[in-house]
């Protein structure tokens, strides 16, 4: 009977996919003005949908069949479950690579969801999705150039390397030289993104909704909704170019104290369109390449502090946040001015790449988010609850929200110990996180469904930054949380100052800031004493 039920599930997916494929194909050919594009769409999309359905059915069947009859909590079930996780992650990885585009974007996102999906999926996706993306052929690149600029790359540029130096989910990057001798990086959108992006998005949405109907606890509809909103913006490279300009303007105006330490490539507007982006070529080390960073004469800990400061300023003060800061999008180089630290080490400059995915936080959201992080840093349980509820977590799930933000259980979140939020990156830390992910999967899914999409992207940004910090420091750093605490508190005070109505209000705000500085100083002193004690024992 169980086997019949499993086969029935696979059949439902297959029948639904077939119906959608044949009906959609006929409708597309009948209504399209571009018959060649329509024919390409009708041969590609149905194949992908069938492939999606087959993979989903295979994974569902593997889980239910392999774990059938094995008692919960037994060693045998844990062993078999680990094997199924690995097999399923590899199947999903293969599906993403074969379909490309939006599917790779989806795989990259899964690789950041440590708090929701099993570690086997996280590691499989993280190891492959950032640097092994499919590559468009040179003929396809020429096709994009002809459509966008009317000429092939060898006519537009004095030199153009047909072999890309990097390929991502939506585009790939080539090195070129302009006719006036400037070395540039040219980002070229994959041709299939233009042809199938909307159809792929509908396909993924259909599949996720179907699986949710069959298995209500599997609810990733929030992820589909986010892709639906963000993908069109990411596919317009002129929006990306404008984002990079606005980002640097914000640092110059709102965070001048670190503006020299943050950079984005200059855009060549006359050689850029919605599907082609020509930028200044940047030479530097990837932010997770610790060996190269050290060879440049830069301390990895200085880079970690700069990354934390940069994104804290964006989130809490600018309200305009780069939401895709994974390692492939962050470069490090010595500060061009040549400034050095006291002991001779070079100061770092952070170069931000790929400005396609930004989110704006309105005043209320930014104030609540900054207030929440300040409460987290100071173990303020009442403040954590108050601002989590304001952000949409609800009184029933605010504890879980705090845990996802910090990747710490609630008893550690409210622990007054100076290092209560530090993750050491040990096996016990990882296993504890995975246990919570497994134990609270339905509640986490409900929380992600409930939160505003802008906060979901803040979670993704936090996940990316946490992975960067782990690679630089082999775990999180207490100094990172000092930076977050300071910048979030400054942002809260600045926000309150804009609402100030009397001299008494100003005094109250000043006194609040004084108390914060005193608490932060006490924490820093305790931290240094702890380090001295550890060094002596």
From TrEMBL:
Q: Which SMART domains match?
A: S_TKc (SM00220)
This protein's GO CC annotations: mitochondrial inner membrane
Under the heading InterPro entries, the entry gives: ABC1_dom, ADCK1_dom, Kinase-like_dom_sf, Mito_struct-func_regulator, Prot_kinase_dom
Assigned keywords, A-Z: Signal
| Gene Ontology MF term list | ATP binding; protein kinase activity
Instruction: Indicate the segments forming the Protein kinase domain, all copies.
Output: 159-482
Instruction: Report the leader peptide range.
Output: 1-27
Source organism's superkingdom?
Eukaryota
A Gene Ontology biological process noted in the UniProt record is: mitochondrion organization
Q: Where are the transmembrane segments?
A: none
Query: Which family, according to the similarity comment?
Result: Belongs to the protein kinase superfamily. ADCK protein kinase family.
Q: Which PANTHER family match?
A: AARF DOMAIN-CONTAINING PROTEIN KINASE 1 (PTHR43173:SF19), ABC1 FAMILY PROTEIN (PTHR43173)
This chain belongs to which protein, by name? Protein kinase domain-containing protein
